[in-house]
């Protein structure tokens, strides 16, 4: 059944006001001592359950559970599903084998990124795309003329991220030995329950995909298995620190999904986001290709940089200067990294300072301590690699901690 | 067969300060050798496995003071160092009461109110006073100590820095500061709190590692010393090094070796070689000899000077000052492999504070009596202990479901009294075991099933600490942290710049400013001083900025 068929029936029911419960809400609510919820696609999602610091360290030192069910999930299936997706995303989907997951981007006809997400391939004709932004309409439009069907699984599929160095030990304790599952691989471990070795933390970790109404037993199974392995439920604030350390982007924060941007020129090309490796010009036509080729000739207007910022005051929201005087960009995400012990930031910096002349960059950080505002101009040094990239994330089979 | 070689600098002892100094010397371009008497490195920041499946932080066991400037500059996380904060702590009483020092501020306030509504309010003022003192002292940690007795321009600069900061406090606050630095923790706590249990819980940091009682002047500073660190900017917070405290030394060693340095284990210093008032190298216990114009000793000042430096090379007044340097051992330790999590029947179910530091001392009077025992040469009948189970947080220390417990014990004398005689040799295996039993009896106040949980136990008296790590009398700070031997008086007056009367011989361990606690500051400060003296100051990063 596709989402449109059921729409007429739903129209008569009044829609709920405010935030609604996700599939794991009962468990999360019992653990949410901080009573801090935020709006993730209309769901009440925990920003902190207890203490950001301890949640973060559970993630980086032991293991963490984080509900990712509000992600948008779309099934794309049919004889021409591959062709349709290949025309939509910038990577070559033909090279994605069944059982594998790819990080993908898709652009509008001007080459501006609409969203990023993970693309799962189940079989020759069967895919799932997971992303932040509502995408059903765009996928349906993109599927026009292709022999494939798009199904919105967002509210049918619960998803849970188990991340951290003891996550594989927890899988084993839960009776799920996936020691041979490589990074970016996925597998159906029971009817209706799939596990992928993916995540948003840059660490060893897995994501679980199962039926919405089977969510609580899944949570309980992992929770029990995690008892002796330091498992802790975490909120988004902890995950956000980890994803900045890993250098991962958040839509609406580090870039503006072009469909949601009301102001002109807010869209960015993959290269401007530092993601040009995800664009395959050789694979044939895809949406935005012509515009991106032209953009390659012109060169990027800006670049999203990873910055190592002096001092320890987080640079969130700081403006970036060249030579302390010329304003050339701004920090999109900034945090103190408790693991790398560095003050780290992602920042959009205009060309040429973000591209060819990226020396002599400074961040202007404002702090307010006990009622006194201070302005600090500190060095910001571009860094190529992720701030934290542990080898354990790539080891197969993974270690126990 | 004996080995010879020539280096630009040799560091004697692969403790965390020696390795820190070695990193900075090597990175400044000096070919540096580190020699270590044990077959392993780390000194008192060490992780060893003594029973399969378990790892102990055998000596030091928690981390907070390690200077983040050094961690960042040497990029220690890249070499595997991860410091994980722990949550709160708690104290238990014989009659089944408890005090939970919760990490959650709202919960802590409610808990304090349960003991005394006045104390709940007092806690805010108490914390403010301590944090103010921390704010004052922290900038001095990565600088040489200001020396009012010196007229050298560099010393005058440091003195000006001190005076400027002191002046900034205003006379009232300066008075408070001086009072705080010289007061006893007992008096300070009595001023603020009324609950005996709350006071006992907070007093521990004032006596850890120190041959003083809670009512001895100077113990308030010892508490401050334990508060002035941080974990990720949270001042006063403490954490575990993932993999045990050896992770700190191992990361430093890896950074040193990546920079091209050499570490040689298995033979310690026999003699520091001196010729015409200048150091020329080291003779090791295995017959090897290495030459260098700079020797940086990570050993404490007493061991360095009195045991390994030719007496003829040293002026008499310096020798006497070193001889009277107080370095009394006062602490012992149990490291326990547990075959399961012990029960804490008095704690609320699932209490988060069990992941922090736990104690069974009920009042300041009890703590003072524990000190009286030590003065008489005995281990305390009712010892104070600082007990943690890091394996609740750190998955690397014990198999899943099993645990590792570290129990720091105060007080235990170095020279134990037995049959009317006080001697370190009185620490026989039987007496060590008897001390452990005394401690276990007291741990039973909190966890009655502790004895049934023990899979393996390491017992360390001050004597073992001296024999194995090399700390004179087993003093964990390489010299007590009392005002008479802090700042420009540390280790001895006139030699606060990490130097000695022997040209080229330096003291780089915790005997030097700013003292012990796994800070790495003495090592880094000493390296800066050494490089300055050989005209290479420009090769040292400015960590104090």
From TrEMBL, chain A:
SUPFAM superfamilies: Aminomethyltransferase beta-barrel domain (SSF101790), Folate-binding domain (SSF103025). Residues 305-353 form the Aminomethyltransferase C-terminal domain. Keywords: Transferase. Gene3D superfamilies: Probable tRNA modification gtpase trme, domain 1 (3.30.1360.120). Residues 35-281 form the GCVT N-terminal domain. The keyword Zinc does not apply. InterPro entries: GcvT/YgfZ/DmdA, GcvT/YgfZ_C, GcvT_C, GCVT_N, TrmE/GcvT-like. Substrate binds at residue 207. One of its GO terms (molecular function) is transferase activity. PANTHER family: AMINOMETHYLTRANSFERASE, AMINOMETHYLTRANSFERASE, MITOCHONDRIAL. This is Aminomethyl transferase family protein. It comes from Rhodosalinus halophilus.
TrEMBL record, chain B:
It holds the Pfam family Amino_oxidase. GO terms for molecular function: oxidoreductase activity. Residues 18-416 form the Amine oxidase domain. Interacts with COX5B; this interaction may contribute to localize PYROXD2 to the inner face of the inner mitochondrial membrane. Probable oxidoreductase that may play a role as regulator of mitochondrial function. This is Pyridine nucleotide-disulfide oxidoreductase domain-containing protein 2.
């Amino acid at each position: 059944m596709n989402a449109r068929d059921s729409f007429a029936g739903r129209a008569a029911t009044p829609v709920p006001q405010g935030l609604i419960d996700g599939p794991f809400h009962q468990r999360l609510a019992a653990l949410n001592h901080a009573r801090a919820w935020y709006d993730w696609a209309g769901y009440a999602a925990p920003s902190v359950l207890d203490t950001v610091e301890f949640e973060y360290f559970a993630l980086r030192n032991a293991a963490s559970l984080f509900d990712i069910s509000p992600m948008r999930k779309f099934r794309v299936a049919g004889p021409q599903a591959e062709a349709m997706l290949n025309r939509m995303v910038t990577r070559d989907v033909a090279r994605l084998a069944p059982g594998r997951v790819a990080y993908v981007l898709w652009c509008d006809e001007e080459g501006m990124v609409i969203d990023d997400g993970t693309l799962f391939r189940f079989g020759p004709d069967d895919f799932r795309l997971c992303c932040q932004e509502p995408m059903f309409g765009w996928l349906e439009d993109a599927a026009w003329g292709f022999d494939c069907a798009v199904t919105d699984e967002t509210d049918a599929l619960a998803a849970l991220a188990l991340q951290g160095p003891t996550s594989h030990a927890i899988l084993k304790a839960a009776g799920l030995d996936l020691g041979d599952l490589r990074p970016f691989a996925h597998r159906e471990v029971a009817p209706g329950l799939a596990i992928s070795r993916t995540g948003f933390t840059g660490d060893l970790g897995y994501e679980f995909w199962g039926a919405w109404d089977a969510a609580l037993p899944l949570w309980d199974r992992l929770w029990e298995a995690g008892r002796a392995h330091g498992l802790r439920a975490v909120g988004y604030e902890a995950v956000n620190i980890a994803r900045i350390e890993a250098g991962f982007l958040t839509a609406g924060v580090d870039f503006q999904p072009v469909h949601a941007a009301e102001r002109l020129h807010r869209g960015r090309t993959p290269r401007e986001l530092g993601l040009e490796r995800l664009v395959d010009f050789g694979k044939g036509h895809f949406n935005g290709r012509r515009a991106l080729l032209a953009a390659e000739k012109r060169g990027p207007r800006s670049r999203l940089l990873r910055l190592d910022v002096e001092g320890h005051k987080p640079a969130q929201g700081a403006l970036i200067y060249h030579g302390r005087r010329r304003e050339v960009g701004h920090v999109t995400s900034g945090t103190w990294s408790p693991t790398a012990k560095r003050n780290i930031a992602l920042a959009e910096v205009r060309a040429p300072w973000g591209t060819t002349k990226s020396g002599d960059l400074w961040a202007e950080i404002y702090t307010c301590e006990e009622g006194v505002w201070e302005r600090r101009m500190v060095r910001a040094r571009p860094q190529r690699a992720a701030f934290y990239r542990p080898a354990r994330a790539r080891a197969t089979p993974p270690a126990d901690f | 067969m004996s080995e010879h070689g020539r280096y630009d600098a040799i560091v004697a002892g692969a403790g965390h300060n020696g390795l820190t100094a070695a990193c900075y010397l090597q990175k400044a371009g000096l070919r540096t050798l580190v020699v270590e008497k044990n077959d392993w490195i780390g000194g008192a920041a060490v992780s060893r496995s003594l029973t399969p499946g378990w790892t102990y932080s055998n000596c030091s066991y928690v981390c907070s003071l390690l200077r983040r400037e050094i961690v960042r500059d040497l990029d220690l996380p890249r070499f595997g160092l991860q410091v994980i904060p722990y949550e709160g702590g708690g104290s238990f009483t014989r009659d089944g009461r408890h005090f939970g020092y919760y990490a959650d501020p709202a919960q802590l306030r409610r808990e304090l109110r349960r003991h005394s509504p006045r104390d709940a309010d007092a806690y805010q003022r108490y914390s403010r006073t301590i944090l103010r003192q921390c704010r004052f002292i922290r900038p001095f940690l990565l600088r040489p100590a200001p020396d009012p007795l010196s007229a050298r321009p560099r010393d005058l600069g440091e003195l000006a820095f001190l005076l400027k900061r002191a002046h900034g406090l205003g006379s009232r606050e300066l008075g408070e500061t001086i009072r705080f630095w010289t007061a006893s923790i007992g008096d300070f706590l009595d001023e603020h709190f009324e609950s005996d249990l709350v006071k006992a819980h907070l007093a521990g940091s004032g006596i850890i590692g120190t041959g003083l009682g809670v009512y001895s002047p100077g113990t308030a500073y010892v508490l401050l010393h334990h508060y002035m660190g941080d974990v990720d900017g949270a001042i006063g917070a403490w954490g575990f090094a993932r993999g045990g405290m050896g992770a700190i030394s191992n990361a430093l060693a890896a950074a040193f070796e990546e920079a091209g340095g050499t570490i040689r284990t298995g033979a310690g210093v026999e003699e520091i070689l001196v010729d015409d008032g200048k150091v020329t190298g080291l003779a090791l216990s295995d017959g090897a000899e290495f030459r260098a114009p700079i020797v940086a000793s990570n050993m404490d000042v007493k061991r360095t000077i009195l045991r390994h430096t030719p007496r003829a090379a040293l002026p008499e007044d310096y020798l006497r000052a070193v001889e009277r340097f107080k370095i009394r051992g006062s602490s012992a330790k149990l490291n326990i492999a547990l075959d399961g999590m012990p029960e804490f029947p008095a704690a609320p179910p699932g209490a988060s504070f069990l992941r922090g530091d736990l104690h069974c001392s009920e009042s300041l009077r009890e703590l003072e009596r524990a000190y009286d025992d030590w003065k008489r040469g005995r281990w305390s009948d009712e010892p104070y202990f600082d007990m943690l189970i890091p394996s609740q947080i750190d998955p690397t220390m014990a198999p899943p479901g099993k645990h590792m417990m570290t129990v720091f014990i105060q007080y235990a004398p170095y020279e134990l009294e037995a049959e009317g005689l006080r001697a370190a040799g009185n620490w026989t295996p039987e007496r060590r075991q008897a001390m452990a039993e005394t401690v276990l009896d007291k741990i039973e106040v909190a966890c009655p099933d502790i004895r049934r949980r023990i899979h393996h136990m390491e017992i360390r008296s001050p004597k073992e600490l001296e024999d194995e790590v090399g700390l004179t009398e087993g003093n964990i700070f390489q010299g007590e942290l009392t005002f008479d031997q802090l700042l420009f008086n540390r280790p001895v007056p006139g030699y606060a710049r990490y130097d000695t009367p022997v040209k080229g011989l330096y003291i780089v361990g915790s005997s030097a400013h700013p003292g012990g606690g796994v800070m790495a500051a003495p090592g880094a400060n000493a390296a800066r001083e050494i490089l300055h003296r050989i005209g290479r100051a420009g090769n040292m990063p400015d960590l104090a900025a």
